[in-house]
Amino acid sequence: MNKIQTLQVVLTIAALSLCAGCVDKKQAENTLSPAHKTAEKSEQTDVEKKFKPVNQQQPGVVESALELSQKYAEASDRLAKAELDNTKLTEENKRLNEKLAKTGAELEQTKKELTQANETLIDFQIELNNWKENILGYRDEMRESHKAILESLMKIYEVLGAEVTNAELPASSDANNVQAKAVN
Q1: How far is residue 28 from each of residues 21, 23, 36, 105, 121, measured CA to CA in Å?
Q2: What are the pLDDT digits (tens) for 5-20?
Q3: Where does residue 178 rank: exposed (0-12), middle (13-18), buried (19+ CB within 10 A)?
Q4: What pLDDT, on the 0 to 100 scale, is given for residue 176?
Q5: What pLDDT, on the 0 to 100 scale, is given for residue 115?
Q6: Do the domain assignments include residue 42?
C-alpha cells in the first residue's frame, strides 16, 4: 500500500476507535500495528512541519515567489536591453552594408579610370619614344647636313685661294669653329 492508502486505513481505524469508546490515546495506539504506528508518526511530523514557523534559512513560498519574480524582472530587463542592442547592431550592420555597396561601386569606377589612365600613359610613353627617335634621327641628319656644308665651304675656300691648314673636319658640329680655322 502506498502512503495515502495507509493514511486512510489509519484514519478509519482511529475514527472507529473513537466511536467505539476507546478514548484513551495509549489504548488506541496499542491496537494499531507497528506499520500503522510509523505511518501515523510520519503523518504527525508532516502536520507539525506545516504548522511550524518558517526557519530563517529556508525561504517561504512568498519569499521564493518574490525572489523568482525579481529574477524574472531582471531577466526581462536584460532581454529587453539585449533586443535593443540587437536592433541597434542590425541597423548599423545594414547601414555599413549599404556603405560597403556604395564604396564597392566607387572602387570599381576608380579601377576603370585607373586602367584607362594607364593605357593613356602607355600611349604617351610610346609617342615620346617615337619622338625621341625622330629627334635623334633629325640630329644625325643635321650633323650630316652641317658636315656637307663645311665640306662645301672648304672647297669654296680652296677655289678662292685660301689655304686650308687641316683637311680633316672636326667632330664638333659647330660650323663657326670650322669657318674661323678656314679663314686663318
Answers
A1: 10, 8, 11, 98, 119
A2: 776 776 777 666 655 6
A3: buried
A4: 46
A5: 96
A6: yes
- When divided into structural domains, the chain yields a total of 2
In angstroms, the Cα distances linking 184 to 82, 151, 155, 165, 181 are 106, 16, 15, 8, 5
The domain boundary residue, chosen from 53, 68, 85: 53
pLDDT, residue 162, reads 78
pLDDT tens for each residue of 116-141: 999 999 999 999 999 988 888 888 88
Alpha-carbon gap, residue 115 to 121, rounded angstroms: 10
Read off the C-alpha cell for 178: 670650322
Answer whether residue 49 shows pLDDT above 70.
no
**Residue labelled with grid coordinates 610610346:** 126
Those residues whose C-beta lies under 8 Å from the C-beta of residue 6, and which sit 6 or more positions away, are: 35, 36, 39
Mean pLDDT, residues 32-42 taken together: 60
Residue 133 lies in a domain: no
Is residue 85 assigned to a domain?
Answer: no
Query: Which residues span the domain enclosing 178?
Result: 147-183
What would the grid cell of residue 154 be? 672648304
